[in-house]
Amino acid sequence: MKKRVPIRNHQAESALFGRRAIVSLSIVAIVFLGLLANLYQLQVTSFQEFQTRSNSNRIVVLPVAPNRGLIYDRNGSLLADNTPVYSLEVSPAEVNNIADTIERLVALLSLPEDTADTFYVRLNQPRRFPQVTLFDNLNEQQVALFVSAQHQFPGINIEGRLQRFYPHRDLLTHTLGYVGRINQQDVTRLREQELYAQYAATRTIGKLGIERYYENILHGEVGYQTVEVNNRGRVVRTLDFNPPTPGKDIHLEIDIGYQKVARHQLRGRRGAIIVLDANTGGVLAMYSNPGYDPNLFVGGISSNEYRELLNNSANPLINRATQGRYPPASTIKPHLGLLGLHLGVITADSTVWDPGWYQLEGVERRFRDWRQQGHGWVDITKAIAESCNTYYYDLSFKLGIDNISSFMSEMGFGERTGIDITEESTALMPDRGWKRARYNEPWYQGETLSVGIGQSFWTVTPLQLATSTSIIATEGRRLQPRLLHGIGEQNAIEYSEIIEKPPLVISDSAHWQTIKNAMRATITDVRGTARMAFINAPYTAAGKTGTAQVVALSDETDERPETEDVIERFRDNATYVGYAPAEYPEIVVAIAIENVGGGGRNAAPVSRALMDYYFADDAGRTAILQAIADEEVDANN
Amino acid sequence: MQTTEERQRHPWLAKLHIDGPLLLGLIALSCVSLFVIYSAGGQDLGLVQRQVIRMGISFGVLFIVAQIAPDTFRTYAFPVYIAGLLMLVAVMFFGVTGKGAQRWLDIGVTRIQPSEIMKLAVPIMLAWYCARNPLPIRFLQVLGGLLLVIAPTLLIAQQPDLGTSVLVASSGIFALFLAGMSWRLVFAGIVALGASLPVFWFFLLREYQRQRVLTFLNPESDPLGSGYHIIQSKIAIGSGGFEGKGWLQGTQSQLEFLPERHTDFIFSVFSEEFGFIGVVALLALYGFVIFRGMLLSIRAQSNFQRILGGSITLTFFIYVLVNIGMVSGVLPVVGVPLPLISYGGTSMVTMMAGFGIIMGIATHRRLAISQST
């Protein structure tokens, strides 16, 4: 310190430093005040703004999906349930190596082989939720296995939720339909209907059948949960909860017992059965065979399974009861007879000579009766009971296609019945206009004769057969067929109302009885086509059989069957319509079975089984169902 | 007069070469640090424990350094500076890279960070350089001094470690300023600095640093990308309001919206939880430490000690300014911790060594006086 000290003014140097230090401190003070001014601006002046932004960082309003309404049959038996499922959810943003993670998960939990493929499809589709489901239905073991290894799988979570379950599987598929994942089309439709907000947390939506038709009732209203989240979106705590309104329960007219009988009757055969309540239009049974397990669709069906259903030549995806278009064959003879009486073309007593064929004047071709030797003198009763074609060639020739199509339209043919599912075909009631538009050809008289025995272009759905037969059974009441019985909880059901069009008025109401007597004769007459099926029935039934030459369900096959060839697909379709009791009809049935042969032998017994069940007491019904169950167990073993 | 009073009041502190008020200020800041780290670190006591250990080491270093007579630093100023410079050059070629920068020198036993050494070596060197001749410092001397500052600054800046280079540069420039460089030069320097900004921009700043500056100028341009940190930090500070959300109640920090919560952005956590009142108190505490440091420097016996103490104190101020300015969005993001509050050890040790020097300056002088009289 005291080395080479020049002559220095220590005082001045110290003062200089002092001045500089004070200047520095002043600058420090000014800068600190500047910082404070800025902080004041942030914390006091703009406090509100930043508080809002802070809150919007951490407070998130999460939609909460409502529980879907349940579906019951008319006796309160559960048809569509909500069951808790555990699904494996992947948050792609939080997973480092997705391919590796998925591979390890599939191995760890022994998930099905196509799990990964399905996942990648979902991953690349537009998503509504940040997570992608890897597997929908973990069992308890898998859940336990995953939980113990969860730390190895960041970004993977198990989510528990309620999922639709159809305990009766293929028994009601076409009626109930199913729910499936909400896809892009659904989103677009919901947006258009301004319902999308209601589905903010919902994963599935009714895709078919009742589930689709009554979606608005079943779905309920979305709820909201206000939660605090951290920067990764994880919920830290719930601040407020505004619970969703669950969807309403639906009660169907369907009786599960009928469904079982129907399924049993159609086992191994393609076809459809409709049972209607004659007095309300309620659909007691609607069964289409083959069916499939709707539960496949709930969690998202794999493409393989779907392809299998789609390519199945038996067309399980079609609801034959409302979408199957069958030639009605002779089942519409009562209807045509009624028209003949109505217009006075025939009377109850007028007769026609049937030599076994009918010929139009100046036309070479002979229209054959199914009975080669003919039926002899035939009146309307005999024509229906024995299903005489010649009588009907004559009748339809006299009526003409115009009368036929307009009257049959009145009876609901060629039109939707308005049943409460969307999957319904109008089938076809041909007329001149249609022929012109479709083929650019005039209507030929020969075609009228074919229409007269329920062939040619005329196609019907089993449901149309049932509703039109119901009109006859109730002498003119035109009830809309309806699956919905009521809405609401078991003990507070709001029953739905009967929907009815103005009744069909006939020139003389006695004509109804004429036709009904004839339908009764189908069963009681010695030569009645359904006599064998109803021998010893403890109730009075009436009906009409039909045997239709096959026109393929779809228009794609144009091959004509070689008559003697018994390729199964070219065998006749059996149809049947009927009601019981004959005097005061309570139920109406319509049956169509594909490629099995004559209606009297193949379809009428089905009607017998259904009616037997209807008229049985509780013990009898239980016995019937037990017998079916036993038989099914045997068949499965 | 005052000196005598103090010595009489705490003779044992003086014997330990400790300045009571300054020590109290540092302890107070350390206590604040532990509370904020506990909150910012997700209430992790382990984190707090590790910081307590670091603080213990740092205060130990302070105590040891305070025992060294300030003139000893003067003796070693030049060799240490040269050694530091050589190490910086060595880092450039053989340095260990971490966190995207080449800052460390592996010497087998441990890794050392030469830039950290320069935080003290530069002010010591500059203090010695300025104090060789009578004050005020002459023009040519200033130019020489600037060279002494610029060499390490550039070497550190290219690592890149912008934060440390700013601190090293300011310690040197403060030394020159305190040595009385003419006001004309001061203003000329400011103008020259302003004029050379484009040079900095195009030649010295790296792409990510330029991005930081752009982000600073308009953070909302990329709120989820580079602007995210600063926006979340401002939200944290602003939403703290006047009274704060309360200790452990800051949602921005507790829910992890804030980045670097217990290190560079710890001030945001503090502001969110303790509000404007807390901020005023904290700045007052910093102000007190700076004031005390300057006061002790003014009272120092030699120009070397004065300049050294003042330079260290003002550099401490630069820490505070750069960090708070950064997290509150008035300065670009430069990796400078909030001194004595941020979690982390290295810079704290250096800083405490600096305060040890100041305490040494304050206390050794008194002993010298009392011995000589």
From TrEMBL, chain A:
UniProt superkingdom: Bacteria
Keywords assigned: Carboxypeptidase, Cell inner membrane, Cell membrane, Cell shape, Cell wall biogenesis/degradation, Hydrolase, Membrane, Metal-binding, Peptidoglycan synthesis, Protease, Transmembrane, Transmembrane helix, Zinc
List of residues binding Zn(2+): D354, D369, H375, C388
Residues annotated as transmembrane: 21-40
Main EC class the enzyme belongs to: hydrolase
Matching SUPFAM superfamilies: beta-lactamase/transpeptidase-like, Penicillin binding protein dimerisation domain
The Penicillin-binding protein dimerisation domain, residue ranges: 64-239
Taxonomic lineage of the native organism: Bacteria, Pseudomonadati, Pseudomonadota, Gammaproteobacteria, Alteromonadales
Family: Belongs to the transpeptidase family. MrdA subfamily.
Known catalytic reactions: Preferential cleavage: (Ac)2-L-Lys-D-Ala-|-D-Ala. Also transpeptidation of peptidyl-alanyl moieties that are N-acyl substituents of D-alanine
Compartments, record wording: Cell inner membrane; Cell membrane; Membrane
Matches recorded under InterPro entries: Beta-lactam/transpept, Beta-lactam/transpept-like, PBP_dimer, PBP_dimer_sf, PCN-bd_Tpept, Penicillin-binding_protein_2
Biological function: Catalyzes cross-linking of the peptidoglycan cell wall.
Membrane topology note: Single-pass membrane protein
Pathway: Cell wall biogenesis; peptidoglycan biosynthesis
Major location (coarse): membrane
Name of the protein this chain belongs to: Peptidoglycan D,D-transpeptidase MrdA
